């Protein structure tokens, strides 16, 4: 292929990646469940990195994404960028022998390039429930060739999750919780169904106050008032922090039971929404915050 000279500078950063893709007859990662070489793994997704450490296999990691900030030792690894804004050249620049990526990594165009490269790519399912966490552990363990370790961790995690869920099983008067992701521009961006926020709210024995849409969506004042949340849930570490004063200055929020009682709970994003080995502890902490002594034992 002959490039027009004045396009060369713009295309140079991607040229090596595109040439590598062009020589591949099929997707190297397509159908792959086990890496043939686990010596240099790039981990994309905070819960994936956390699982690798929990398995005691962190020595295999050569890089991680910016959401991988637990345990603290992970921060010493090269950072290939935010999992939803990856660049193929950035990931491939660390010369990985395998890419282990959480479902939802993106953008799609970048992931498609990575899947077509010569580096095996394994996508780990991300379901926001009890069984989804166990599946994630087992998929990561299989990919790294340590299935026995993964099964042991899955059994331990299963026990902890079951115990955490029993804390709130008998609660009848369940709190209505509105998860607010952002208040930028005075607009409330809230979590509907099929989100990590919805999943953790349910596991902690509460009810998502939002109905009728999936994903994250801006809410009108009327919708906020109709949702009648008892609690506003936010996360730390995922962007500009949401202050109580800012939140309850919103007239619609202020008119809800949560606003009347100024009930706001904020937890670190990776801990709250990670759906990994620490989720049982997050469920416990969130349930105690929702129900005080009812869920403390």
UniProtKB/TrEMBL annotation:
Domain of life of the organism encoding this protein: Bacteria
Keyword Signal listed: yes
A Pfam family reported for this protein in Swiss-Prot or TrEMBL: Peripla_BP_2
UniProt keyword terms in alphabetical order: Signal
Domain Fe/B12 periplasmic-binding intervals: 40-294
InterPro entries membership: ABC_Transporter_SBP (IPR050902), ABC_transptr_periplasmic_BD (IPR002491)
Stretch forming the signal peptide: 1-28
Protein name: Hemin ABC transporter substrate-binding protein
Phylogenetic placement of the source organism: Bacteria, Pseudomonadati, Pseudomonadota, Alphaproteobacteria, Hyphomicrobiales
């Amino acid at each position: 292929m002959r490039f027009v000279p004045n396009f060369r500078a713009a295309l140079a950063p991607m040229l090596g990646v595109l040439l590598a893709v062009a020589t591949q007859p099929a997707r190297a990662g397509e159908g792959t469940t086990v890496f043939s070489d686990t010596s240099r793994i790039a981990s994309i997704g905070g819960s994936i990195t956390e699982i690798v450490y929990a398995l005691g296999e962190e020595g295999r990691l050569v890089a991680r994404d910016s959401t991988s900030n637990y345990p603290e030792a992970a921060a010493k690894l090269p950072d290939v960028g935010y999992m939803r804004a990856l660049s193929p050249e950035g990931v491939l620049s660390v010369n990985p022998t395998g890419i282990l990526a959480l479902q939802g990594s993106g953008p799609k165009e970048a992931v498609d390039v990575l899947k077509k490269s010569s580096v095996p790519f394994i996508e780990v399912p991300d379901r926001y429930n009890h069984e989804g966490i166990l599946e994630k552990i087992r998929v990561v363990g299989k990919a790294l060739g340590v299935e026995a370790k993964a099964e042991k961790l899955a059994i331990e995690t299963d026990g902890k999750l079951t115990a955490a869920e029993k804390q709130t099983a008998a609660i009848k008067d369940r709190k209505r919780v509105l998860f607010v992701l952002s208040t930028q521009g005075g607009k409330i961006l809230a979590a509907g169904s099929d989100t990590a926020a919805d999943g953790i709210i349910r596991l902690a024995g509460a009810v998502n106050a939002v109905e009728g849409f999936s994903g994250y969506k801006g809410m009108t004042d009327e919708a906020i008032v109709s949702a009648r949340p008892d609690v506003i849930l936010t996360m730390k570490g995922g962007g500009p922090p949401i202050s109580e004063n800012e939140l309850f200055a919103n007239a619609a929020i202020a008119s809800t039971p949560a606003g009347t009682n100024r009930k706001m709970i904020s937890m670190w994003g990776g801990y709250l929404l990670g759906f990994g080995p620490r989720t049982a502890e997050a469920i416990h902490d969130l349930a105690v915050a929702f129900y005080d002594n009812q869920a403390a034992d």
